[in-house]
Design goal:
Layout lengths: L3 E6 L5 E3 L4 E9 L3 E3 L4 E6 L1 E4 L3 E3 L4 E4 L5 E4 L3 E2 L1 H8 L2 H4 L7 H5 L1
Parallel strand pairs: 1-3, 2-4, 3-5, 3-6, 4-7, 5-8, 6-9, 7-10
């Protein structure tokens, strides 16, 4: 597990950005699903990026899209499933006692 950079197409059935890894991409294509695990970072730095399937950002995972005139095309679903799992595991949320500040308090 290490940090990598790529320009071009990632020819894999699935891409996983693991814990403590930073994956920097400029003008790339991911034909399969992408998963950003807790502690992993996907940094998109420019050009055109195409995601052919779903992008899952886990709790603690980060997708940093640097504002450099890039185009991002997602042909699947971008989900923050990890956040939803965390919210559902929170007693305040489950009992309906939350308010508009809930998300900020949950972090």
């Amino acid at each position: 597990r290490s940090s990598q950079s790529v320009v071009g197409t990632v020819e894999s059935s699935r891409t996983i950005v693991a814990t403590n890894a930073v994956y920097s991409v400029n003008s790339g294509a991911f034909p399969g699903p992408v998963e950003i695990q807790n502690g992993g970072t996907l940094r998109t730095t420019g050009g055109t990026l195409t995601f052919g399937s779903n992008v899952l950002v886990a709790v603690g995972g980060r997708w940093l899209a640097e504002p450099s005139g890039q185009t991002i095309v997602v042909n699947g679903v971008v989900t923050n499933l990890g956040f939803h799992q965390r919210a559902l595991g929170n007693a305040e949320f489950r009992t309906g006692g939350f308010d508009t500040g809930f998300v900020a308090r949950l972090g």
